[in-house]
Amino acid sequence: xxxxxxxxxxxxxxxxxxxxxxxxxxxxxxxxxxxxxxxxxxxxxxxxxxxxxxxxxxxxxxxxxxxxxxxxxxxxxxxxxxxxxxxxxxxxxxxxxxxxxxxxxxxxxxxxxxxxxxxxxxxxxxxxxxxxxxxxxxxxxxxxxxxxxxxxxxxxxxxxxxxxxxxxxxxxxxxxxxxxxxxxxxxxxxxxxxxxxxxxxxxxxxxxxxxxxxxxxxxxxxxxxxxxxxxxxxxxxxxxxxxxxxxxxxxxxxxxxxxxxxxxxxxxxxxxxxxxxxxxxxxxxxxxxxxxxxxxxxxxxxxxxxxxxxxxxxxxxxxxxxxxxxxxxxxxxxxxxxxxxxxxxxxxxxxxxxxxxxxxxxxxxxxxxxxxxxxxxxxxxxxxxxx
Amino acid sequence: xxxxxxxxxxxxxxxxxxxxxxxxxxxxxxxxxxxxxxxxxxxxxxxxxxxxxxxxxxxxxxxxxxxxxxxxxxxxxxxxxxxxxxxxxxxxxxxxxxxxxxxxxxxxxxxxxxxxxxxxxxxxxxxxxxxxxxxxxxxxxxxxxxxxxxxxxxxxxxxxxxxxxxxxxxxxxxxxxxxxxxxxxxxxxxxxxxxxxxxxxxxxxxxxxxxxxxxxxxxxxxxxxxxxxxxxxxxxxxxxxxxxxxxxxxxxxxxxxxxxxxxxxxxxxxxxxxxxxxxxxxxxxx
Amino acid sequence: xxxxxxxxxxxxxxxxxxxxxxxxxxxxxxxxxxxxxxxxxxxxxxxxxxxxxxxxxxxxxxxxxxxxxxxxxxxxxxxxxxxxxxxxxxxxxxxxxxxxxxxxxxxxxxxxxxxxxxxxxxxxxxxxxxxxxxxxxxxxxxxxxxxxxxxxxxxxxxxxxxxxxxxxxxxxxxxxxxxxxxxxxxxxxxxxxxxxxxxxxxxxxxxxxxxxxxxxxxxxxxxxxxxxxxxxxxxxxxxxxxxxxxxxxxxxxxxxxxxxxxxxxxxxxxxxxxxxxxxxxxxxxxxxxxxxxxxxxxxxxxxxxxxxxxxxxxxxxxxxxxxxxxxxxxxxxxxxxxxxxxxxxxxxxxxxxxxxxxxxxxxxxxxxxxxxxxxxxxxxxxxxxxxxxxxxxxxxxxxxxxxxxxxxxxxxxxxxxxxxxxxxxxxxxxxxxxxxxxxxxxxxxxxx
Lengths: 387, 286, 448
What we know:
The complex is a heterotrimer. By secondary structure, chain A is an all-alpha fold. Chain A has a domain at 64-159 and 228-384: MetI-like fold, CATH 1.10.3720.10. Chain A is 79% helix and 1% strand. Chain A has helices at 2-12, 19-65, 68-72, 88-119, 122-137, 140-187, 193-223, 233-258, 261-269, 274-303, 306-311, 332-339, 350-384; strands at residues 76-77, 84-85. In chain A, a hairpin with a 6-residue loop joins strand 1 (76-77) and strand 2. In chain B, 33% of the residues lie in helices and 23% in strands. Chain B has helices at residues 10-13, 78-85, 115-121, 136-146, 152-165, 169-172, 185-197, 215-228, 241-247, 265-270, 275-281; strands at 38-49, 52-63, 67-71, 95-103, 106-107, 122-125, 203-207, 233-237, 250-255, 258-264. In chain B, helix 8 links the parallel strand 7 and strand 8 (233-237). In chain B, helix 4 packs across helix 5, helix 5 crosses helix 7 (185-197) and helix 7 (185-197) packs parallel to helix 8. The relative contact order of chain B is 0.17. Chain C contains 17 helices and six strands. Chain C folds into two domains: 45-202, no CATH class; 220-447, MetI-like fold (Orthogonal Bundle), CATH 1.10.3720. Chains in contact: A-B, A-C, B-C. Chains A and C meet through helix 2, helix 4, helix 5, helix 6 and helix 8 of A and helix 1, helix 9, helix 10, helix 11 and helix 12 of C.
C-alpha cells in the first residue's frame, strides 16, 4: 500500500522523474562534459605534438653530429660537403638582438605601464590603450619591411648624426636629473643654510659643465661613426623593441593595477610624492608581475622571425668587438626561415635536421620562460591576496 | 485575509525518518487557524559549504499560499536556506546537504529529483534586479520558450498575463521590444517577478528583493507581494523588519544557521518567545 | 633630499612616463606614415602613356581610341629621338675605329637608358619579358630614368680610407661634337610630351593579378590568399576555442589536470611563430599528408593552432565578464545548465568573444612565419575555392617579404611593396579598430 502510494506520488509530482530518466540525464551530462573536456584537452595534445614533432626531426642531427659542434663552433657552412654546423654565432646573434631590444623596451615599457596605471587620467588612458593595441597588431612583416626599406638606408646614410641625436635626446634629460639629485644629496648634510646654498650652486655648475662636456664629447665621437650596413643588430633591436613593448606594457599594467588602492593611499598619507610612492611601494609589490611581463616581452623578441630575417643582415659571425651592435648578425629564427627551403627534406640530411635542432632550442627556451613567468604571476597573485 | 495564530513546533510533532532520503510525508494539516497545508517542509535540514555548516538542522513547515518572511543578521544562513529550496546552491561546488527538505512531500535533494523541473516550480527573484540584456518581451518569454511554448500568440498572452500580475503591464506595454536594461531599478525588479511568474511556479522565493531599490520602488514591490499572496507560496528574505512585519504571515528568525524561532508574524514581533529574537527585533544587535 | 628636489624628481618621473607613451605613439606614426604615404602611391600616382598602353594590352582596359591618339601624339615627339639615334649610328660608321669603339660603348649605355625610359626602340627585337615591353609607367620613375640618361654614375675611390663616393658626369659632355649631343636636352625638354603624365587612379591594383612577377598589375591573388588563410584558420580555431573556453569557465574543476591544461594553453601562446611553421611542415604535410606539399589547408591549420590560445583567452574573459546574476536568473527559471550557456551566457559574451576573434583574424592575416613552409608561394595566380586542399597560394605577408628581400629587382618595384604593406596593415588595423569600437560599445551597453 505504502509502496504504491510512493510510486503514484512520483508520477504525479512534476519535479521527480523516474530512475531511468535520471540515469539517462546523467549519462548525457557526462557525455557532454566529456566532449567539452576533449576539446580543451586538444590544446594540451597540440603542445605535446609540437614538442614531439620538432624533437623527432631534431634528434637525428645530434645523433649524426653530436652536441659540441652545434653549441661551441661558429663555423656555419651547412651547404658545404661535408657541412659545418656551428651555431654559436647564430645563438649569439639571437641573444644579442633580444638583449638589445630588451634594453630599449623594458625601461620604456615599464615607464609607460606606470604612466598608464598611475599617472594618466582615465580620459587620456582611453586613447593611449588603442595606440598600444595598434602597435601590437601591426604584422611583423610590415615592421620588417619598414626596417629594411626605411630604417636601414637611413642608418647607412646618416648613421653618425642619428646616433648623436639619439644620444643627446635620450641621455641629456637623465644627465640633467642626476646633476640636480647628486648636487642635492652631496649638500644635504651641511647644517648652515647659507653655506649649503653656496655649495649647492657651485656643485650644480661644476657638474653641469662636466655633463655638457660629456654630452658633446660622446656626441662628436658618435657623429664620426660610419655605419657600414643599415641591416644590423641595432636596427633589428630597435624594431623588435617596438614589437615587445605592447606585451610588456599591458602585462605590467595588469600587475600594477593588481596592487590595491589602499597601499597607494597609505604611502600618500605619509607624505610621499607620487614618484616615491610608485618607486618605493608599488613597484616592489608589482615587481614579480613586471618580471613576468619582461620575460614575455623578451620571448616575443627572441621568437620573432620576419624582422630579423629581413633586416639583420643574416651574417653568421660574432661581431667584432662582441658588443658591436652596428654589424650584421644572424639569428636562430631567421636561419630556420631562410634555410628550410634549401635543405633537402626527403633524404633527411643534417642540414634539414639542424634547423629542427634550432627550433627545439627555441621551443625549450620559450617553454621554460613561460613556465617561469606563469609561476611568478601566480605567486604574485597569492601574495597580494594575502595567502 | 487569513490570520495565523499559531505555528506548531514541527520538529517535535513529526519524527525524522533518517533511513532514506526518498521519504514521503503526507501534507501536514496545520494547526493554524484557517487550515493551511505545509508546502515545503524541512526536517533537520543542514547545508554545508565544505566543512562549514551554514544552515544547522532546520526543521520547519512553510505553509501553502502564505507569505513567510525570513529575518536574521547577515551571514545567518537565511539566504542559503532560501537558495536551498530551488537548489541554486548547486552552483557552489563545495556545497552539500543533509537531512530532508521536502516540496509537496517529495525530497528536493532526492536521487530522482530533476533540479531543472524543480526550479520551474520554485521560482526565484534575486537581490539585485537581473534582467537579461534582451527585450522586455524576450525576458518574459524566456522561461515559457525553455519549456516548449513557441507559439507567438500564446507567448504574447503569457507575457501580458505575467506583466499584469506583476503590476508592470501599464508601464511597459508600449515598449515590449525595448531592452529591459533601460528600465528603472524598481521596474526591473518587477519585471524579474513577472519573468518568474511566466513559468507558472507554485513557490516564489524572494531574496532581499528590495535591498537595491529606493523606498518608492520598495513600496510597489511590497504591494505586489500583497497581491500575489493567496496565489503563490511566497518566501521572502529581508533585512528590513518593518518589511517583514508588513508583508508576511509568518516569520522565521535565523541566527548563525539555527532557526531560532518560527511563529506567526504578529506573534513573533509582539511577543517573541526567544530572548535572542527579542534582542534582534528590538535592535540590540543586527 | 629637500622638498624642491623631490618635486623635480616627481615631475621628471611623470615626464618619463608620459615620454614613453609619446615615444610609442611616435613609433606607431613613424612606421605607419611612410607605409601609408608610399602605399597610397601604388593606387594614386602620375601615370604615363606607357601605363595606359600596358593596361590596354594586359587587362583590356581603357579607351582604345583615346589611347591611340595619345600614342600618336607621343610618337611624334619620340620620332625625333629615334631619328637622332639612326643619325648617330650612321655617324658612328664614319668614325675612326678607336673612336668608334669608345663611342660604341657609351652609345649602348644611352640606348639602354632610353629603352628603360620609353620602351623598346625601333628595330629592337620583341622583348621576352613583359617588363621590357613598356617604358616607365610611373612619372616619378621616369624622372629617375631621365637622370640615368642624362648623367653617368661614377665612383670616386681615390681615398682608400673612405668609402667610395658616387658622383655624376653629364653624358652630353661625353658626346660633345657629335650629332647625339642634341638628344639629351631634347629628351629633357620633351619628356612630358613623350610620356604624357596624367594623374592616375589605378583601382586595379587591388583587383588585378600581377604581370611579370609584380612589375605591373595588382595584388589580388595575394589579398585573396591572405583572406583564405585567415578565414580558414578561423573556421578551425574559433569553434574549438569557444568550446574550450566554455569548458574552462563553466565545467573545469580546480585540480592538477586543469592547471596542466592551462599551462598547455599559455605554452602554446608562447611558442615562437616559426616553430609553428616547422610543426606544420613536420606534422600536417610530412606526417598527416593533408596535402602533397604546401597548401592553403595546411597553412590554415597551422595558423589555427597559433591563434587558438588567443581565442580561448579572449572567450574565457568574455564569458567570465557575464554577470553571475544572468546565470542565476536563467537557472531559477528552470533552464538546464547547457541551455543557460547557449541562450544566456554565450549571447551575452558574444561581443567579447567576437572581439577576440576579430583580433585573432588580424593576427592570422598578418603572420608570415607559420605559412612560409606550409602554404605560401611567391608567384601565382589567384586560386579557386576548390584548390585550397591541394595548392599553395600567394599571400600578402609572404610576398611583402619576398618582393622586398628576394625579388630580382626589389628596388624597381618599391611602390608595389608599399602597396602590399599598406593593404595588409589596413586589413589588420581595420580589424583591430572594429574590435576596439566593438569593445567600447559593449562596455557602454553594460553600463546601461
